[in-house]
Design brief:
This protein is an alpha/beta fold. Strands 7-8-12-11-10-9-13-14 form an eight-stranded mixed sheet. Strands 2-1-3-4 form a four-stranded parallel sheet, with helices on both faces. β5 and β6 form a beta hairpin. α3 packs across α4, α7 crosses α10 and α7 runs parallel beside α11. FE2/S2 (inorganic) cluster (FES) binds next to loops.
Length: 554
């Protein structure tokens, strides 16, 4: 009676309590997350499908993470959202759940939660914005912010132009429409088998976004009955498929961290080096910004992810079964590509095999670092230069406009203190804007190294996720201005030309920075966050607890 009576207060009739599956709709809608602000409409479409299939839908709000607004970085809160969604799923009497996400961190946070609870789950991402338009050209969210800000800093774009561009860049609801982190993670959810085919790419404003949501509502009722759980969908095979797809779509480097974190929740053995090994065989096929020319609407109309996966079928585990309940081979058998400029064939790729995200090793990054080759300058992938070191991104921002800054085009810019513990939260600052005096000379790229992340919409020859980070005493903490650094991406190495004896002397003189956080979530995060090479999850959140409530007093 206690369960029924209070739900009756919402006006439900007696039939909904006839034993039909209760389907939670976990909604990360928020006006503070513009990319997810339309998700209430998407939830209504999911509900239609659930009712249609004989389930009982109950929508509930979750924490939401707005990438563009949150300080110091939305990534600081990914694990908090994952923890909150996990506990909501476990605490409430749900038989299955549909996850509604969109903006960058909301998708991995929800997948991490679903992995730990292991209730039957389908994800519906909110879809990308319509393509950006500005003065007759296509402009991509994020990617053109960095370009326009660089142009503005160099004096080639006025403030009025910037203001005019910003509305043209955000023409509809939805998440960033470049192949940034949100689009990448939507594709990862589909490649893992956690969302329905084509669901990653329908634009948020397209009626087919609601259709796919309704279909997810219908399908989740079947999943509740067949008990197809995330642990049976997100297998090692599924992660290998996702890594191959990420390389082919020119996906975000953030996918590396998020996939490692999701795998960690499931106990799937996935390591940083898997990304390099698996991606070496994969050409970049999808011609989208920031690696290429087009945007998500174009990708959708060209056939979306099923067309890419069909093209890649020789490299994928096509016997994998996702939330459709069908083998991938069957799902993609009839997928067509309608635009070969946007989705290139394996025989004529946008970039050759092995040009996706590379994993580097060396005495500067003993636990690894990554670089997105497809967004880098080819002539800088092998580079030797002298370091110019900054202890924080704020220090760099103060110095960058200085016309007397001692920096040359060949300099390697090093920014540290921006890792998971150091900032904290590992902000997306790795593709920082070049020093003003070089921009004014027309320099468009330089080697940059940091323990930070980079927005999936960013570009440049930037080495990211250096591990261990400087704040825990990684070798990055010991680099000094003037040291020589060798970057050799084809050889997958990043080395500091400083002898072991000298490094040992510097280490003795080094002391860890004091954390300014004495309480609250930030303290919990700093004390427990793992390094980027392990997925930057909190150490005590690894693994699964399942859906059972430890003590059920009803
Ligand atoms: Fe939300 Fe880019 S800011 S997806």
């Amino acid at each position: 009676m206690i369960y029924r009576s209070w739900l009756r207060a919402e006006g439900f009739t007696a039939e909904v309590f006839d034993g039909r599956p209760v389907i939670g709709i976990a909604n990360s809608w928020s006006e503070l997350t513009p990319c997810n602000a339309h998700l209430r409409g998407v939830a209504d479409a999911v509900k239609r499908g659930v009712w249609q299939a004989g389930g009982f839908p109950l929508e509930f709000p979750t924490m939401s993470l707005g990438e563009s607004l949150m300080r110091p970085t939305a990534m600081l809160f990914r694990n908090l959202m994952a923890m909150e969604v996990e506990e909501l799923l476990r605490a409430n009497p749900l038989d299955a759940v549909v996850l509604l996400s969109g903006c960058d961190k909301t998708t991995p946070a929800m997948l991490m939660a679903a992995a730990s609870v292991d209730l039957p789950t389908i994800m519906v991402t909110g879809g990308p914005m319509l393509n950006g338009r500005f003065r007759g050209t296509q402009v991509g969210s994020g990617t053109h912010v960095w370009r326009f800000e660089q142009e503005h800093a160099a004096g080639r774009m006025t403030q009025e132009d910037l203001l005019a561009a910003e509305t043209g860049m955000a023409r509809s609801c939805g998440h960033c429409m470049t192949m940034g982190t949100a689009s990448t993670m939507a594709c990862m959810a589909e490649a893992l088998g956690m969302q329905l085919p084509e669901s990653a790419t329908w634009p948020a404003a397209d009626s087919r976004r609601l259709r796919t949501a309704q279909q997810a509502g219908q399908r989740i009722v079947d999943l509740a009955q067949s008990d197809l759980r995330p642990s049976r969908v997100m297998t090692r095979q599924a992660f290998e498929n996702a890594i191959v797809v990420n390389a082919a779509i020119g996906g975000s480097t953030n996918a590396v961290i998020h996939l490692l974190a999701i795998a960690g929740r499931l106990g799937v053995a996935l390591a940083l080096d898997d990304f390099d090994v698996l991606a070496r065989r994969v050409p970049t096929l999808v011609n989208l910004m920031p690696s290429g020319k087009y945007l998500m609407e174009d990708f959708c109309y060209a056939g979306g992810l099923p067309a890419v996966m069909r093209e890649l079928s020789g490299l994928l585990h096509t016997d994998h079964i996702g939330v459709t309940g069908r083998a991938l081979a069957e799902v993609i058998a009839t997928a067509e590509c309608w635009n070969r400029e946007v989705i290139r064939p394996v025989a004529d790729p946008l970039q050759p095999p092995g040009s996706g995200t590379a994993v580097l090793r060396g005495n500067l990054c003993p636990d690894g670092a990554v670089i997105k080759q497809s967004a880098a300058s080819q002539q800088l992938l092998r580079h030797r230069g002298q370091a110019l070191v900054f202890d924080s991104i704020e220090d760099y921002h103060r110095a960058a406009p200085d016309p007397h800054l001692d920096v040359a085009e060949s300099t390697i810019l090093v920014v540290r203190g921006a890792g998971p513990k150091g900032y904290p939260g590992m902000p997306e600052v790795g593709n920082f804007v070049l020093p003003t005096k070089l921009l004014e000379r027309g320099v468009t790229d330089m080697v940059r190294i940091s323990d930070a992340r980079m927005s999936g919409t960013g570009f440049g020859t930037v080495v990211l996720h250096v591990a261990p980070e400087a704040a825990v005493g990684g070798p990055l903490a010991l680099v000094q201005t003037g040291d020589w650094i060798n970057l050799d991406v084809p050889a997958r190495t990043l080395t500091l030309d400083v002898g072991d004896d000298e490094l040992a002397r510097r280490r003795v003189a080094w002391s860890p920075p004091a954390s300014p956080f004495s309480r609250g979530y930030a303290r919990l995060y700093v004390e427990h966050v793992q390094q980027a090479s392990q997925g930057a999850d909190l150490d005590f959140l690894k693994g699964a607890s399942g859906a059972a409530v430890p003590r059920d007093n009803h």
